[in-house]
Specification:
This protein has 13 helices and 24 strands. It is an alpha/beta fold and 475 residues long. The chain has two domains: 1-379, Rossmann fold (3-Layer(aba) Sandwich); 382-471, GMP Synthetase, Chain A, domain 3 (2-Layer Sandwich). Helix 2 crosses helix 3 (57-69), helix 5 (166-180) packs across helix 6 and helix 8 crosses helix 10 (268-278). Belongs to the ATP-dependent AMP-binding enzyme family.
């Protein structure tokens, strides 16, 4: 018989009443388990269920109930528009849509109704009642079974559903627990959306597997993080930037054990600000929807700005670089990889090399000591200028080191002579284009300096804080 995926729920003895807190509402693991069993009893036998992933105890209950029943879960962003929502429901063939209470806050903190406008897809909406109980037992599902269908926001076409198995989730969470010394003695704090790997798989299932207490702040506000009293904090770079801009909140995190950053590169200036204010050098990690988390710095190891550490247990990596190049596409293999894209065999096949390694599409460098540095996406962040291969992320970090620059995004634009020229988009005050070009040339090799600098009021970003370079104005 296989071990339970949600280990801490199998042995609720000695539970505490605030083992799980989401947006100010708390419950014990035993109460969560009892309500989730009722969900499992209602949905057992369904092919797939969708969950409207508001930051609520009901969302956690719905996800746990589906996992207990062995029914694949499709998290649906609560603020998704009708077209995106209907695509996810239709493509996944979800039979039910589980929802939280009336007035639940969505991921952006706005009030949202219990159910969105009636979807075009024929899906029954089922509210989750935390008081509901049911007599139901079922075997632990097959580890090879699908736990989640997570929809990725690809660069082209409609989002694709990535099939994530139960054993991949278990392998990843156990590897992260080892890397971060994550135990039942920890209190995990975060306020991340519950429809991504970061907030849901790591940020909820990680706590339920290790047995650590979980405090989800509803929104990832610096004051909420400061008040939570955690030992382990998760955030994306936007969250950590805001924390670093609030010195009192940042200093309140000095009692924590680890600050973990992911989902996008953490700018070096934010890394240094956090270290100065909290006394902690942040742990950085790397992953994708299709691979879960595969690289990380360690709780007991070195942490360098701009580096995402070394492979987790069971993961192997390589860089496919052109001859003489220091950077190239990161490829990897290991037990955390997805089982393919739902109903898209050609897309699945295209994501692997001929010898079976997953192609991340990210450009990376591996140092002699095994530390990995992610330069950016191959599609947007690898710039070929004058015969040089330049990573946009390196130029962005150099720009962010200038005291006048608050945000920076770098792209390659067509150029008759160079092939591509480096163009920087910055949010800055009191500095000229020429000053920034000269500043980068003084920090990096001269050929890595921007040829043009455009000033913006703000960079376009997605819900996870990643800059959306395809939405930048023409160079």
């Amino acid at each position: 018989m296989s071990a339970p995926l949600l280990t801490s729920l199998a042995e609720p003895d000695g539970d505490r009443p605030d083992a799980l807190t989401v947006a100010g509402r708390s419950c014990s693991r035993e109460a969560l388990f009892s309500a989730a069993v009722a969900v499992a009893a209602r949905i057992a036998g369904a092919p797939v269920v969708a969950v409207r992933a508001t930051p609520t105890v009901e969302t956690v209950t719905a996800v746990v109930g589906a996992l207990l029943a062995g029914v694949p879960v499709v998290p649906v962003p609560p603020d998704s528009g009708p077209a995106e929502r209907d695509h996810i429901l239709r493509d996944s063939k979800a039979a039910l849509l589980l929802t939280g209470p009336q007035g639940a806050e969505d991921a952006g903190g706005r009030e949202a109704s219990a159910a969105p406008a009636a979807p075009a897809a024929a899906v029954e909406t089922v509210p989750v009642d935390l008081a509901e109980r049911a007599a139901w037992t079922g075997p632990e599902p097959d580890p090879k079974a699908t736990a989640f269908i997570l929809y990725t926001s690809g660069t082209t076409g409609a989002p694709k559903g990535a099939l994530i198995s139960r054993r991949a989730v278990a392998a990843d969470l156990d590897a992260l627990a080892e890397a971060w010394a994550w135990t039942a003695e920890d209190t995990l704090v975060h306020g991340l959306p519950l429809f991504h790997v970061h907030g849901l798989v790591l940020g909820v299932l990680g706590a339920l597997r290790t047995g650590s207490r979980l405090v989800h702040t509803g929104r990832p506000a610096p004051a909420a993080y400061a008040a939570a009293g955690g030992s382990l904090y998760f955030g994306v770079p936007t969250v950590w930037h805001r924390v670093a801009q609030d010195p009192d909140a940042a200093r309140a995190l000095s009692a924590a054990r680890l600050l973990v950053s992911g989902s996008a590169p953490l700018p070096a200036p934010v890394f240094r600000d956090l270290e100065l204010l909290t006394g902690h050098r942040p742990v950085e990690r790397y992953g994708m929807t299709e691979t879960l988390i595969t690289l990380s710095t360690r709780a007991d190891g070195e942490r360098r700005p701009g580096y995402v550490g070394t492979p987790l247990s069971g993961i192997r990596t390589r860089v496919a670089a052109e001859e003489g190049a220091e950077i190239g596409e990161l490829q990897l293999t290991g037990p955390t990889l997805f089982d393919g894209y739902l109903g898209r065999p050609e897309a699945t096949a295209g994501s692997y090399t001929e010898d079976g390694w997953f192609r991340t599409g990210d450009i990376a460098a591996i140092e002699p000591d095994g530390f990995h540095r992610i330069v950016g996406r191959a599609s947007t962040d690898l710039i070929k200028s004058g015969g040089y291969r330049i990573g946009a992320g390196e130029v962005e970090n150099a720009l962010l080191d200038h005291p006048a620059v608050r945000e920076a995004a770098v792209v390659g634009a067509p150029h008759e002579d160079l092939g591509q020229q480096i163009v920087a988009y910055v949010v800055a005050d009191g500095v000229s284009e020429a000053e920034l070009i000269d500043f980068v040339a003084g920090q990096l090799s001269v050929h890595k300096r921007p040829r043009k600098v455009r000033f913006l009021d703000a960079l376009p970003r997605n819900a996870m804080g990643k800059p959306q370079k395809k939405l930048l104005p023409p160079a």
